[in-house]
Structures are given as C-alpha cells and as structure tokens.
Amino acid sequence: MKNLTIIALFIASSTFAAGVQPMTAPDVLTKKNVTTPVAGKTTVITFLSAKCPCSDNHEPVLKAIYEKFHSKGIEFVGVHSNQDETVEKAVEHFKASAFAFQVVSDKGAKIADLYNADGTPNVVIIQDGKIVFEGGMDDNSNSAKAKAHYLED
Q1: Angstrom distance (rounded) from CA 147 to CA 140
Q2: What pLDDT was estimated at residue 65?
Q3: Of 2, 85, 75, 92, which is closest to residue 39 (Cα–Cα)?
Q4: Full-model pTM
C-alpha cells in the first residue's frame, strides 16, 4: 500500500480532487450488483476490454498488482465499458481471464464517462472518496516494454 499511496500522492497534483459517488453495476459473469468504489477502502478501478490487445497484454500485470496489494486492504474492480463488444464476447473473455476480482458491465458507458476513461486499460484510484490517480498502468501499450510502471513501482 505504501508504494501505491506514494504513486497516487505523487500524481495527485495533476488529477481530480472531486468527491466520488458510488455506482452500482452488474458483474459480467454472475450478474450480481457490485458497488464501486468500495466504501471506506482504497479502490483501484480498471477499465478493461474483451478485444483490445493492449488491455489483454496488461492482464497478467494487473493480476500481479492485485496479488501484491489486495492483501494490504486495497480493493479492485474491473469495468467493461466497450459498447462495441457483445455481452457473449465479454462473458467468454472475462471467464477465461479468471480475475480474482469482479468485472462489472458498464452498459451505456456511464462509469467510463464519470471517470473520463478514454481507453483500456485505464486505471482510476479512489482513496478517501477522492480520485487520486487516473491514467494508464504504465507508459507502453506492451507492458513488457514499459519503462515506467505507475502501479507497481
């Protein structure tokens, strides 16, 4: 959490400081409603795609970050907002991806619009009800070639 907090605070000067209202959306796989951000918890929201090669390329990195930080009390939620991807494709993809956290379906891209998510993977970190980071996971569309790992370092 220390690393994640330092990164978030470092970048906070160039990000939003507005309060965040919780939103509820159905899990892609279970269809059960999930509320994000998780009340009282630092929450990492990651916008994901079922067909974007960049998003797909970052999935192993996101899983490793989850493993590193979830045990320290940080919550993770994936958001599938791509309106040009079918529900069937999303279910197939995210079932195969087997994330340890929930991925919600963002019908109408309301969550993406709220957080100004303009691509995948795009990450928003919410701490104490405020957005403290918004941006990419790293500085490259190919995570193996990235020089700056914004969520890992």
Answers
A1: 8
A2: 94
A3: 75
A4: 0.84
- 4: confidence class by pLDDT, cuts 50, 70, 90: very low
Name 25's Cβ contacts closer than 8 Å, sequence gap at least 6. Answer: 33, 34, 36, 79, 104, 105, 106, 107, 111
Which among 138, 58, 55 is positioned nearest to 89, based on CA atoms?
55
φ and ψ of 142, to 5 deg? -110, 110
Look-up of token digits 């994936």: 78
User: What local confidence, expressed as pLDDT, does residue 37 receive?
Assistant: 86
- What pLDDT is recorded for position 14? 35
How much is the pLDDT for 32?
94
Cα–Cα dist 4/2, whole Å? 5
Whether 36 and 23 have beta carbons less than 8 Å apart is answered as yes
